[in-house]
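pasting for ref. prot 1 ->
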Amino acid sequence: MPPALTLQDELLTWGESVRRDLPWRRTRDPWGVLVSELMLQQTQVPRVVPRWQAFLDEFPTPAACAEAPVGDVLRAWRGLGYNRRAVNLHRAATAVVERHAGRLPEDLDGLLALPGVGPYTARAVLVFALERDLGLVDTNAGRFVARALAGRAVPLREAQALADAAVPAGAGWAWGQAVFDLGAAVCARRTPRCGSCPITTSCAWALAGWPAPDPVTGSGGISGVQAAFAGSDRQGRGRLVDVLRSGPVPHEPLSLAAACGWPGEPERAVRVAQGLVADGLAAVVAGELRLP
């Protein structure tokens, strides 16, 4: 059997045997898939599992999301972090209602035209909702592409082409899930478990003897190490949004600093609050900072 077919067969067989029962894998609703993909960006699966269905219970369609104030969407996003994603989801829902009569477009260009929907997310909706045979390249899947398919660091354009070419015909959904499970459980960033990998005999990096540097270093679509969260502006932003979920905060330095958790840094808190307003996560109304 040719190596490419061997890899496909090995990975699909393994993926079928270990596939995690995640709630968004039980739907083919494009809106539900889009919600899951935005929630999963930079957020671990265990945090998303209890929030995904609760969010869809409140906003079951793009129209329901678009009709709600952004503040309601932000409240439903509690516990997921990176609150700008909630604003992007609301903007995308509004565009779907205005441009597509409330139904997500079913083509790549139409999805890419939605606010906050990038190349990976657009393809993920097509793969996981519509079962299209497209390859996916994000941090998890990108490691598989760089190590198993290329055996070297690859720029994003080449990584996408390799990912597309590797998808077995008619198996886009199952392939995508298997690639993600491999990246999450085996092909990890720092300590890949090559000894228990189901495709070691077909992996380009393994066949080459695992030469340094690791192919993920410098490959397109793979996120780098994030700066520390503790003490960062991101932490202060998150604290301030959490406080706003319960009610407005006086728009004055000391109150903002207390809400950010920086009682001695009022100027920094004012700057963070200004950033929230600029990003659409907050508004100043009658001398108070509140959710929009």
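and prot 2 ->
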Amino acid sequence: MIRFALAFLCLCGGAQAEPSLRSEGAIRWQVDAPWFGGWSGIEVGAQGRQMTVINDRGQMVVAALQRVRGEITAVAVHSTSHMGRPGGGKVRKKASDAEGLAIANDGSTYISFEHRHRIMQVDRASGRTFGRIALPFQNSLGNNTGIEALAVSANGTLYAIPEQASPDGSAFPVYAYANGEWRITARIPQRGPFVPVGADFDPYDRLWVLERAVTPLGFRSRIRLFVLDPTAPREYTLLATVPARFDNLEGISVWQDARGKLHVTMISDDNFLRVLRTQIVEYSVVE
């Protein structure tokens, strides 16, 4: 049973030191292929040497991250697959707009879709989707403001945060799915023009949320870290960029290297437009 408090969240550092981020660089990723682009979800594994990404047209890619002194120098695609329907055939058109990606500790893989709002499990080897998870709150989601922030906690609970901001400035609900039931387990405050577009849990079960704001001068990105402890909830703002510092960052993954150090990797969605780029951006976590 989910027992998180709903009254959430205040800025309160307590006795704990506030984490910070240190830039580890950014690279532009390019592949000359019709399926390349629109990357919205990312999960990094193998202690930073492999990534799984999904895009707005139902494509899933597994690639190796080649590094020199810890920084990414090249990306080598290992496999590509177009997501398939449970009964066979490819997921088509608007039904293929994959946005959020979450991989549990046991390998279970979940993807959230916009336009035709739903969450599906996926077989990463074949790309076939199965195990649809209904969204009882989908009527409150706009066509292009669905569940982009999707994450799985250490105990296997699936979390989803809608991208849609409330006009009255009220907090974003954090939905949790366990035992076949969705519940609002927390609410994160809406601060400024940012909306959630990506999420992940770190090994300490803290929730990292990537947010985006669109301005006339370009995209802005923000990362907030939340401790989901009803007795001592905490919120930290670890990154807030100026316009056009990066492109349209939408996916976030928090991972641990061989020495136990935490890193944050993000990927941008170029919307299949020439004026935008696919960037992979990394930070290390200082605690």
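The longest strand covers residues 71-82.
DSSP finds no helices and 20 strands in the chain.
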